[in-house]
TrEMBL record:
<dbReference type="Pfam" id="PF00072">
    <property type="entry name" value="Response_reg"/>
</dbReference>
<dbReference type="InterPro" id="IPR058245">
    <property type="entry name" value="NreC/VraR/RcsB-like_REC"/>
</dbReference>
<dbReference type="InterPro" id="IPR001789">
    <property type="entry name" value="Sig_transdc_resp-reg_receiver"/>
</dbReference>
<feature type="domain" description="HTH luxR-type">
    <location>
        <begin position="151"/>
        <end position="216"/>
    </location>
</feature>
<dbReference type="InterPro" id="IPR000792">
    <property type="entry name" value="Tscrpt_reg_LuxR_C"/>
</dbReference>
<dbReference type="InterPro" id="IPR011006">
    <property type="entry name" value="CheY-like_superfamily"/>
</dbReference>
<dbReference type="Pfam" id="PF00196">
    <property type="entry name" value="GerE"/>
</dbReference>
<keyword id="KW-0597">Phosphoprotein</keyword>
<protein>
    <submittedName>
        <fullName>Response regulator</fullName>
    </submittedName>
</protein>
<feature type="domain" description="Response regulatory">
    <location>
        <begin position="4"/>
        <end position="122"/>
    </location>
</feature>
<dbReference type="InterPro" id="IPR016032">
    <property type="entry name" value="Sig_transdc_resp-reg_C-effctor"/>
</dbReference>
<keyword id="KW-0238">DNA-binding</keyword>
<dbReference type="InterPro" id="IPR039420">
    <property type="entry name" value="WalR-like"/>
</dbReference>
Amino acid sequence: MPLRVLVCNDLPIVRDGLRSLIEAEPDMLVVGTTDSGIEAIVLARTRRPDVVLCGLELHGISGVELIRRLMREPGDAIPRIVALTMVDDDETVAALLHLGVNGVLVRDATGQELAASIRSAAKGQTTLAPELTTRLVDWFRRSNRRVPEELAAPHEELTARERQVLLLLARGLSTEEVAEQLSIGVTTVRTHLYRLRCKLDVRDRAQLVSFAYRAGLVKSA
């Protein structure tokens, strides 16, 4: 079954462009487009998309309010959400992550990044635009915090391969790039990521990256 995507954006030309990019992917289908935050809620309930691609400027209610309301839907009705923002300041990105989005793309995102974010979101993973990941990494490096005691022990249980995967992930590599770097299969990388999440008691990729820097596993250059 193809991934079902709902596109929400206030500009017709952007909606049409996003539809074309998404439907060019063999495993994706656009189930609706809208410029209205209220209509987006109705479409999310009736067409049950796997992923909602959401701009922040919508008619009726804002994209942020739309995300907030979708997150309050009944458990299995909550879609995965990728936010597309023209404003990538730290406050906006932080607000989106706190809302629980599964991805944040900025205005110069490529079609390849768009497709990768949708696929990752559908799996429940969290991805950020490469430049946002770099800023997150820089923030952790600048913070220069001591490792909390509760973080000191868990990483000692990791295998050498799990550490390699975690370090490459923290440096911004995708699952496919980690597999290529380590000369192992993508499925094997995903298995390591699953075990890492279980061992470290974290939910997604963003929290794994956060753990790596907070625990001091990745050092400043």
